[in-house]
Amino acid sequence: MLVLLPPSETKAPGGDGAPLDLAALSWPGLTDVRARLVAALVALAGDPRAARTALDLSEAQDDEVTRNAALPGAPTLPALERYTGVLHAALDVRSLTRAQRARADRRLAVGSALFGVVRGTDRIPAYRLSAGSALPGLPPLRALWRPVLGPALAAVDELVVDLRSGAYAALAPVPGAVTLDVRSERPDGTRTVVSHANKAHKGRVARLLATTTGEPGDVVRLRTLLRRAGLHVEHDGGTALTLVVPAG
Question: From which domain of life does this come (predicted)?
Fold first, then answer.
């Protein structure tokens, strides 16, 4: 099972690993696009005003531009420790036991505007680039990534659970992947889309999938695994699952 996570805008600073080695990252077929984007970000950082516009930053966030300027020589961390957003806080990989972390390292990958997708163990620096960013002189990120990232993900020979947000899933959809929609249910039975808390719920699901000793091979077995864990999960056919959580 491969669980695809979204990245987060917030990232842990620093690191204890050697500088970025693109050739050492998983899915080496993505190296050329990765290198092109790293070079573009470094060059863009030489013009802070243009970088703010392209990356949708304010002057108060110029440290993000500085990070991008230092990308080639910056220290690295495993991807699972680099991202610090709501979903990744709920996943909380640092609290896993050694055996759980080993399973998480095998199963978890993170979608990325800069790297396409990386395994949880891949060492990456802190950076700023979002799926919706438009870099001067380059095609849209979707046009860059889809021709190479799409085939790479389609070639994964195991159940794929795609928890990426819409913008990152659009970089390269995965045919046949299981997706998870989160709905909030009020006492009267009416349901609404879960917005911000959606990330926390998906983070908890990701933690469960990362650490379970089970190995579901299809959507039905995955639904069963989640239900046995006490989650209210519905399956109306196809590969889409709905997680229903109480309102509030």
Answer: Bacteria
Closest by CA to 115, choosing from 154, 84, 144, 151, is 144
Q: 211 Cβ partners below 8 Å, 6+ apart?
A: 96, 100, 103, 104
Q: For 64-86, how does the pLDDT look when each residue is reduced to its tens digit (9 = 90+)?
A: 999 999 999 999 999 999 999 99
Predicted pLDDT at 9: 95
Using left for φ > 0, alpha for ψ between -120 and 50, and beta otherwise, residue 92 falls in left
Please report, as a single letter, which amino acid is at residue 134. A
Asked whether the predicted pLDDT for residue 92 surpasses 90, the reply is yes
Rg of the chain over Cα atoms, rounded to whole angstroms, equals 18
> Is beta strand 160-162 parallel, antiparallel or unpaired with respect to 2-5?
parallel
Question: Could you tell me the residue range of the domain that residue 206 belongs to?
Answer: 2-246
Share of the chain above pLDDT 70, in %: 100
3-state secondary structure of 123: strand
- pTM attached to this predicted model: 0.95
* Dist CA 64 CA 39 (whole Å): 16
User: How many CB atoms lie under 10 A from the CB of residue 115?
Assistant: 27
pLDDT at position 247 is: 87
The structure tokens listed for 68 are: 């991008």
How many structural domains compose the chain? Answer: 1
Residue 172, both tokens: 């390269």
